[in-house]
Amino acid sequence: MTSRRPRVFLGLNTQFRRLPGSPWRARHDRQRRPPFPTPRFAAKTRSMTRITPDMAQAAFLPDTVHKRDIFSETISGELQGIADFPVVLRKLDGVPAYARPIAWALARKEIRALKAVQGIEGCPVLVRADRTGLLRSWTRGTPLQLAKPADAAWYKDAKRLLREMRRAGVTHNDIAKPQNWLRTPDGRAAVIDFQLASVHRRQGRLFRVMAREDLRHLLKQKRAYAPELLTPAETRMLAQKALPARIWMATGKRAYNFVTRRLMNWSDGEGTEDRIERDSPALRAAWLGDDRVQDMALTTYALPAHGVGLYAFVETDLDAATLAALAPDPRPELIQPVARLPRHADGSPRMDALSLIAANRLDELAELTATDPALAQEIAPITANRLNLTDRVLRR
Length: 396
Hints:
about 400 residues, alpha+beta, five-stranded antiparallel sheet, 15 helices
């Protein structure tokens, strides 16, 4: 008895169609979109800064250290001989030997992602990558937690940006952080920090899930800063966290928190004790009782794992080691001697500026000093020698 073969009807342009449970796949199912923009897509993108040979070979002139951890050091600056083109260097040549493999693995991910998003307005431009690290353009803009956009136009442009990244096969994977979103001077959306981004060769199920999570994280920002603009469909999407994200929060996130917070000194936690009120009287008595100390100011910053650390700015000629020896227990975690504290007209210390320096919140500090050149000049040496270089903040 002969086995029955499925009847297949072939026409001029007919192709196999995949039926439920069938191993056959149509040719159009196997053909995936290329991981990088097609010429037609690239032609639709807005003009971008093109890296010339002179720019790629120009010497990097460092200006400000923004962040430092065991994986890299982030420094902004400019290119020698290139006007009006700020850049930022993710410096890797000083990474400890035990962290170097992971640091370069993250750098390679970032390099690949930056190459894939070239031509997309709102994404950084890769200048070069070498043994020192990777150099990219500096995106001018205000972080989302400061800009707090309430207009529909910004969120529409942010969706456009994610859509174009998706067409390029790229998912960012770290835009839950508002500091990775920017509002540019012309009111458009931009994203930075592609260290955790992924470039997908095929737009399969994993890619779709990760792209959806990027969009959901954008909607979380919208809910935080412009909840009245959320549509019913967006509200439903916010309530439907993807299964991999739920699994990650229940398992991998805990391991990640242990490694980053306990072993690598990162922190997201908040403190419960008022360290300043508790420790200030004894510190003032010890330091201001010495004729070599003129004044002091105390503020807090995020500690590793949890809680708050005490940051002391001391107006003195003494060094930090001598100040630490004079201080009673418990000593401040960070002690920075300064030549002169910034002051208000009434003579009181500028705690608004000092708190931002201690917390390494340079974007907010730049906004504070934008209309006060005298203050900017006064705090410049204090900012340059600040002791906290993490990008973690205390939750309020």
